[in-house]
Write a structure and sequence with these properties.
This protein is an alpha+beta fold. Helix content is 30%, strand content 20%. The longest helix is centred in the C-terminal third of the chain and has 18 residues. The protein is globular.
C-alpha cells in the first residue's frame, strides 16, 4: 500500500496500458475468411491474415480442435463493421473497404516448422533425371507439387484453378479450371486429388505431395478419420464443409503410400512457385 502511494505521487497520471485484442496464453485463432485460412497460435499471426481484408471472419478458441471446427462450419457470416473490428463473443469481422484480394502473403519459415507426415525414410537429396518423362524422387517417393488458387475468393466473380507440377517440361504437368463451387480451399484439395490420379495412372505407389496448404494436409491426415467416425459431422454436429472434396481425396489415397509435406508459399521454392503458376493459369481458363 505504501509503495502504491509512492507510485501515485511520482506518476500521478500514468495512462493505462493498451492491449491488443484477444492476446492470451495457449489460445488459438481461427481464420475462416482472410488472406490465408487456418489456425494460428498468436494474435499477431491472425491479424496479418485479417487486417484490411474485406469482411474477414475469425475467432479465438481455447483448443485447436474447436478452432478447426469453426473453419469447417457452415455458419452464416455476421455483419461486418465498416470501420474496424466488431466484437461478438470473441468472434470478429473486419472490413476496412480495402478491395485488393490476396491468395496468401509472404511468410518466413524455418526448417523446423515444415510439416512432414508419414516420413518413413532418411532424408536424402532429390534425384533428378535428364529425361523429362521420368520423375524426381526423394528416397523411394516420387515427388509432386500441388497448388490451388482462387481470385475474388468468397465472391460471386470467384475463379479457381488447380496446378500440378512434376518437374520442368514434364508431360504430366497440369493446369485446370476448378469445376463447381469456386473457392481456394476446394482448389487446394482437388489439386492433390489430380496428382494422386496421375500417380496411379503411372503405377506409382509411393508419392510425396508437397503443398503449401496446411488445411489440406491436416484435413486428410487428422480430421477425415474423426469425421468418418462422426458420420461426416464436426464435433459441433454440423455438416463438414468441403465434404465431397475430402471424401474424394480420402478415397483416392487408399492403397497409396503418401507423404504429405508442407512448404511455405511464395518463399522461393521452385516446385511450389511452378505449381502456383499452373494454378493461376487454370483459374484463367
Amino acid at each position: 500500500m505504501w509503495r502504491r502511494s509512492v507510485d501515485l505521487l511520482v506518476h500521478p497520471f500514468l495512462p493505462p496500458v493498451s492491449r491488443a485484442p484477444d492476446i492470451g496464453g495457449n489460445m488459438f485463432y481461427a481464420v475462416r475468411k482472410g488472406r490465408r485460412v487456418g489456425v494460428y497460435s498468436s494474435w499477431d499471426e491472425c491479424k496479418e491474415q485479417v487486417d484490411r481484408y474485406p469482411c474477414a471472419r475469425f475467432k479465438k478458441f481455447g483448443s485447436k480442435r474447436e478452432a478447426y471446427d469453426f473453419i469447417n462450419e457452415d455458419a452464416g457470416e455476421s455483419s461486418a463493421s465498416s470501420s474496424g473490428y466488431e466484437q461478438n463473443s470473441d468472434s470478429y469481422s473486419y472490413d476496412s473497404g480495402y478491395t485488393q484480394t490476396y491468395k496468401r502473403p509472404y511468410q518466413e519459415y524455418s526448417e523446423s516448422k515444415y510439416t512432414n507426415r508419414r516420413t518413413k525414410y532418411t532424408d536424402v537429396p532429390y534425384t533428378s533425371s535428364a529425361n523429362r518423362n521420368e520423375f524426381e524422387y526423394k528416397g523411394d517417393y516420387a515427388v509432386v507439387y500441388t497448388d490451388g488458387c482462387c481470385s475474388s475468393n468468397g465472391r460471386q466473380a470467384a475463379r479457381a484453378g488447380t496446378g500440378v507440377y512434376w518437374g520442368p517440361g514434364h508431360p504430366l504437368n497440369n493446369s485446370e479450371r476448378l469445376e463447381g463451387r469456386q473457392t481456394n480451399q476446394r482448389a487446394e484439395i482437388n489439386a492433390a486429388c489430380k496428382a494422386i490420379e496421375q500417380a496411379k495412372s503411372q503405377n506409382i505407389q509411393k508419392l510425396a505431395i508437397y503443398t503449401d496448404s496446411k488445411f489440406t494436409i491436416d484435413g486428410v491426415t487428422s480430421w477425415v478419420p474423426n469425421w468418418k467416425t462422426n458420420g461426416w459431422k464436426t464435433s459441433a454436429g454440423k455438416e463438414v464443409t468441403n465434404k465431397e472434396d475430402f471424401q474424394r481425396l480420402s478415397n483416392l489415397s487408399e492403397g497409396m503410400d503418401i507423404q504429405w509435406r508442407h512448404v511455405p508459399g511464395h518463399s522461393g521454392f521452385p516446385g511450389n512457385e511452378a505449381a502456383d503458376r499452373l494454378a493461376k493459369e487454370g483459374a484463367g481458363k
